[in-house]
Amino acid sequence: MKSILIAALVALAVSLVATPAVIRLFRRQGYGQEIREDGPQTHQTKRGTPTMGGVVILIATVLGYGLAHLLTLRGFTASGLLVLFVMVGLGLVGFADDYIKIRKQRSLGLTARTKFIGQLIVAGVFGVLATKFHNAAGFTPASTHLSFVRDLSIGVGVIGFPVLAYLIISATSNAVNLTDGLDGLAAGSSAMVFGAYVIISFWQFGNTCLVGAIRDGACYTARDPLDVALVAAAAMGACFGFLWWNASPAKIFMGDTGSLAIGGAFAAMAVTTRTEMLLVVLGGLFVVETLSVILQVAGFKLTRKRLFNMAPIHHHFELAGWPETTVIIRFWIIAGLAVAFGLGLFYAEFLSYGPLP
Q: Which of 42, 142, 172, 287 is the most exposed place for a label (fewest CB within 10 A)?
């Protein structure tokens, strides 16, 4: 628990202190956000606001995780490092996307193909390495089975797992990217999901199969749950610190640098904690945002009519007359309810093995 607190507090402090310096630096460099012309007109006032603030989230997370290890003399693990690899790797893809937008003064950065290749490389490396690094009990960072709260009977094999990893990582990173459209919406919602993974990972650590189950079947086979909790705590602290400056009216945006990195971290944590399908519940808000885009595109192709005023759905409510802060707060409530429901499902499954001793 001490290491988790250190990771969260260090990342929070770094994010709070470093973000203003990054804002000043990016303003001098002219790293301002381009705004979609077809979006809500109220957003045009945000043009030129510094972007790529996800760099701060990445640095704070890595420093929080690293210092927690150094200060507690705890060794690094394969699971924790793999989660960070996905987070930083997709952060670099997002950084390239943001940088192109800034240099070319447009709202579109990398081509869809280039972004696909970047995500494919990161997910592919993760998918291959995550099934290696057996510990003394034979556990690996990832399992080749689909999982909800623990592994299900549906397996994809060592060959199929990198494909599954790509699908999860690309879907989750793109979902967070779609949600990042209002001041503080993605940062606040993401902090809640990271908080959930702190709880889930620490609970798995306290009930690991490595020391034997207290009750038959009630233990977890996650390889390094405590280390995953450290990454989640650091990322949570980094998001909260960034949110201080990203809240409406935002002084800086996380950009694709932050949104792709955060989504990748969610996916990697879900894989390493054997909660891949539970992530759909925990990230319920991100699922709703993604579905709204899918329904908007599909509906328009079929009927030539738009189902929403604009997608993602947070823009629909803005164009319907809701103030931006109202949309943000209500969507935060939805995100919190989804996280609470997901944690309830996780704990209920644990209790299904019988009453606590």
A: 42
